[in-house]
Write a structure and sequence with these properties.
Layout (H helix, E strand, L loop, with lengths): L2 H10 L4 E7 L5 H14 L3 E5 L10 H12 L4 H9 L7 E4 L2 H7 L1 H10 L2 E5 L9 H10 L2 E3 L1 E2 L5 H10 L4 E4 L13 H9 L6 E4 L5 H9 L4 E4 L1 H9 L3 H14 L3
Parallel strand pairs: 1-2, 1-9, 2-3, 3-4, 4-5, 6-7, 7-8, 8-9
Helix pairs in contact: 2-12, 5-6, 6-7, 10-12, 11-12
């Protein structure tokens, strides 16, 4: 399923999207498939499937630890695509990874492998729009959305470039720093949402971990909330993972309705 189709479907129902993150291979490829099923059962509209990398610069300690566990369990790009292809959920899958892995595989091959595995979007936090032409062309050629990030300090000119190239949705970083759960939703989130003028759905991530925060972000004008560390913390605990992941997804989705 394409990301645009999912947002169109939600618009008809007057709902906003819950985008849930899990790191592929944490704690194992088989467990990830069950976790994705639990996320979708709980109400996740889009699943962001992290491809683990040894130096995840945009991620805080929680997701860094998940990447390490996944890599130690043997997850690699070939296994990632094999696992993604075997996921049978009727939601868009989005790959979040770092450009080193894409460059090594080749832009065209990476985009093609995504398309063949049923992945319809790619997020690359360490790839600026100015340097993304090759990957952008490869994604267009293979029908995969390339999603760019906008932060509280993105300048007007760069924001324009990112918005021009992004498709599927634009990933709005709610605050400066790395991923991780936070107590409050930064004022900067509201300011940045007010600054962005685009027809592309606006998804806010970094620091959202409960229904109240999700509701605040939606009220501020977001079309979607992205939640990662809160789910990854449950997965790391190893206790009643699928049941608790589904419950949290359900609580978050309520705020999106």
């Amino acid at each position: 399923m394409r990301i645009g189709d999912k947002f169109a479907e939600l618009k008809e129902k007057n709902e906003k999207a819950l985008i849930a993150y899990a790191c592929a291979g944490d704690p194992s490829a088989e467990a990830t498939k069950e976790i994705v099923h639990a996320l979708v059962k709980g109400g996740a509209d889009i699943v962001e499937l992290g491809m683990p990398f040894s130096d995840p610069v945009a991620d805080g300690p929680t997701i860094q630890a998940a990447s390490t566990r996944a890599l130690e369990a043997g997850m690699n790009p070939d296994m990632y695509f094999e696992m993604a292809a075997s996921i049978e959920e009727n939601v868009p899958l989005v790959c979040m990874t770092y450009y080193n892995l894409i460059y090594k595989r080749g832009n065209e091959k990476f985009a093609k492998d995504c398309a063949e595995a049923g992945i319809t979007g790619i997020i690359v936090p360490d790839l600026p729009a100015e340097e993304a032409d090759e990957l952008h062309v490869a994604c267009k050629h293979n029908g995969v959305d390339l999603i760019f990030l906008i932060t509280p300090v993105t300048t007007g000119k760069r924001m324009e470039k990112n918005l021009e190239k992004t498709s599927g949705f634009v990933y709005i970083v709610s605050r400066l720093g790395v991923t991780g759960e936070r107590v409050d939703v930064a004022e900067s989130t509201k300011n940045i949402l007010a600054r962005i003028d685009t027809e592309v759905p606006k998804a806010v991530g970094f620091g959202i971990s409960n229904g109240q925060q999700a509701a605040e972000v939606i009220k501020a004008g977001a079309d979607a909330v992205i939640v990662g560390s809160a789910f990854v913390n449950i997965i790391a605990s190893g206790e009643n993972v699928n049941e608790r992941v589904e419950k949290l997804a359900s609580e978050l989705k309520i705020s999106c309705r």
